[in-house]
Design goal:
Layout lengths: L1 E3 L1 H11 L4 E4 L6 H10 L2 E4 L3 H13 L4 E5 L1 H17 L3 E7 L16 H5 L10 E3 L3 H17 L3 E7 H5 L2 E3 L62 H15 L8 E4 L6 E5 L4 H13 L5 E5 L1 E3 L3 H8 L3 E6 L5 H7 L7 E5 L7 H8 L1
Parallel strand pairs: 2-3, 2-4, 4-5, 5-7, 6-7, 10-11, 10-13, 13-14
Antiparallel strand pairs: 1-8, 6-12, 9-11
Length: 364
């Protein structure tokens, strides 16, 4: 038993999974990642600003190292250009996004779930960048590992979505609950000759070979490029390569579809939630079932791209209650757009956590 927070568990999971370097610029409420990063990662770099952090992340990844950083919305806003470059170059990395109350500076010490829509549209052209969310301490361990595994498997930046309360609240926790994590293999062994930096097979992911390799000439390009990594704007091969950035996730979505589905026989109501709101939803479900109400619970962990399996679960129920700590329901809007069907109910709040009683009231 230890007294810990999710920042430490996520940091330890990163190191166990083989992350090489933490590159950071301190920002509330991600400060503890910065603090733990100085102590636990093999290497640590303190950037002068978030723009530099993202450029250094790309440099390390291109050189064959796996970089990690943590920020909040103002930092992510500055990182977005560099994140787009890393996405186009297909550079594996992990960005931990600790949500806080906005807009803008908002309240740095108040939690929220307000950044999901920004990540949904973060890549120009509406290409999906994998966004995972954890809902408790065990999730913080396992989803960090899955995020790093996904980044390397798909050669992509990945965002791990968290919030102030999840990473800055200390609790007693039994470390025996955590599964063993082994380092993720960083380099591809499948190279189809003749080698081209962005040539892919049926897995739709090019081999990951670092710059400076003794055998292959590696090109990394953030502009529209062909299989050889050369800028060819109107070339069919380049257009196909650009479309592949979207298709590689959507056609292999089942490999990165993570969620917890607690069904109950006879239930026609489904509570859908993620992240910090999941604990209140779990308590609400227990209370509802104790009172005789039949209700199911879906805790989503793969936020983007939206897994079809998640949609299929929602389609089964006559009533779907979205629980999110934001105005209007961001995840609800991603799923249903502006015109949600009549069966959809939203439980939203800002400035404080949603309580189980507020969820119970909405369900009843």
């Amino acid at each position: 038993m230890v007294f810990t927070d999710a920042s430490m568990l996520i940091t330890e999971a990163c190191v166990k999974a083989g992350a090489d370097v933490f590159i950071g610029y301190p920002i509330t409420p991600s400060n503890r990642f910065y603090q733990y990063g100085t102590q636990r990662f093999p290497s640590f770099l303190a950037g002068p600003d978030e723009i530099t952090v993202m450029q250094w992340m790309a440099g390390y990844s291109a050189a064959g190292k796996f970089p990690v950083s943590a920020t909040a919305f103002p930092g992510l806003a500055l990182m977005t250009e560099g994140l787009n470059m890393a996405y186009a170059m297909e550079l594996p990395m992990l960005l931990i996004l600790t949500q806080r109350l906005g807009p803008s500076t908002g309240s740095a010490t108040t939690g929220a779930q307000g950044d999901l829509m920004f990540t949904y549209g973060a890549i120009s052209g509406h290409y999906p960048i994998p966004v995972f969310s954890h809902s408790d301490f065990e999730d913080s361990w396992t989803m960090t590992y899955e995020a790093i595994k996904t980044a390397i498997k798909f050669r992509t930046p990945v965002i791990l979505l968290t919030s102030k309360e999840l990473v800055m609240t200390n609790k007693s926790f039994d470390l025996n609950k955590l599964k063993e994590i082994k380092p993720v293999e960083k380099f591809s062994t499948k190279v189809e000759e003749p080698y081209k930096p962005y040539k892919t097979g049926k897995e739709m992911v090019p081999p990951y070979i670092p710059l400076g390799d003794d055998k292959y000439q590696v090109r990394i390009n953030a502009s529209t490029h062909n299989d050889a990594g050369l800028i060819k704007k109107n070339d069919p091969e380049s257009m196909a390569n650009t479309k592949r950035l979207k298709e590689k996730f959507e056609k292999r979505i089942d490999e990165i579809a993570f969620y917890d589905f607690d069904n109950q026989d006879g239930a026609d109501k489904l509570i859908v939630t993620y992240g910090i709101s999941a604990d209140a939803a779990r308590d609400a479900v227990a209370e509802l079932r104790d009172s005789g109400e039949k209700v199911a619970l879906l805790i989503v962990k793969t936020m983007i791209p939206v897994p079809p399996k998640v949609m299929e679960i929602m389609d089964r129920f006559n009533s779907v209650i979205f629980v999110e700590e934001n105005i209007g329901g961001i995840y609800k809007e991603i799923i249903y757009g502006k015109n949600a069907p009549a069966k959809v109910i939203a439980v939203n709040k800002i400035g404080s956590l949603i309580s189980p009683s507020e969820i119970v009231k909405a369900v009843k």
